[in-house]
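User: Reviewer 2 asked us to show a designed sequence for the structure in our supplementary figure. I'm pasting the C-alpha cells here. Could you produce the per-position amino acids so we can include them in the response letter?
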C-alpha cells in the first residue's frame, strides 16, 4: 500500500519514526513534509495529504501535528477524506474496519513514539469490513457529506 505522511513543525520530531515504521511494515511512503521545526500551519499539510488520497496517489495517509485535532478537523472538510485522531491501537483499526477511515491523525505532543508505532501498525493492517451494518453507516456518512442525507427514525423534542 502507498501511504502519504505529512506533518507540521510540532509533528516533525515524530515524522521520521512514523515513516520508518510504515516502511518496515512493507509499505511505500510519500513524504509531504514539513522537513524541519520551522513553524508552519497544519491545515496546509493535512490538505496536502488529503489531496493525495483524493487524487488516488495513495490509499491512506498519516498526518502529525501537536494534538492531531487540527489535522483531523481540516482533513474532514475534504470530500472523501475520513480522518480521526487515534492514540490507541483499537481505535486505529476499528476506525478503518467500521468507519472507512483513510487518514490517521496523531498528536506528537500527546503520544510517545513506541505507542505511535503500535497505532500505525494497527491502522495499516486493518481492512474496511464489508459487513452490512457498517456499510449502511458508511453510506449515511457519505450522504451527509454530499448533502443527500435524510434523517430516519430520529427523536424529536
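Assistant: Here is a per-position design you can include in the supplement:
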Amino acid at each position: 500500500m502507498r501511504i502519504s505522511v505529512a506533518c507540521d513543525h510540532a509533528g516533525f520530531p515524530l515524522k521520521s519514526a512514523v515513516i520508518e515504521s510504515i516502511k518496515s511494515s512493507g509499505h511505500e511512503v510519500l513524504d509531504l513534509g514539513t522537513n524541519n521545526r520551522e513553524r508552519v500551519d497544519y491545515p496546509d499539510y493535512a490538505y496536502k495529504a488529503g489531496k493525495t488520497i483524493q487524487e488516488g496517489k495513495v490509499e491512506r495517509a498519516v498526518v502529525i501535528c501537536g494534538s492531531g485535532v487540527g489535522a483531523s478537523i481540516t482533513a474532514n472538510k475534504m470530500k472523501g477524506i475520513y480522518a480521526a485522531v487515534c492514540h490507541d491501537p483499537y481505535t486505529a483499526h476499528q476506525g478503518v474496519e467500521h468507519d472507512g477511515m483513510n487518514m490517521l491523525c496523531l498528536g506528537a505532543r500527546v503520544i510517545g513514539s513506541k505507542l505511535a508505532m503500535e497505532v500505525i501498525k494497527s491502522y495499516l493492517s486493518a481492512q474496511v469490513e464489508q459487513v452490512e451494518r457498517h456499510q449502511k453507516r458508511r453510506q449515511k456518512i457519505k450522504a451527509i457529506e454530499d448533502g443527500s442525507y435524510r434523517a430516519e427514525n430520529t427523536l424529536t423534542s
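For the response letter, you might also mention the following. Strands lie at 2-7, 28-31, 60-65, 83-85, 103-107. The mean pLDDT is 95.
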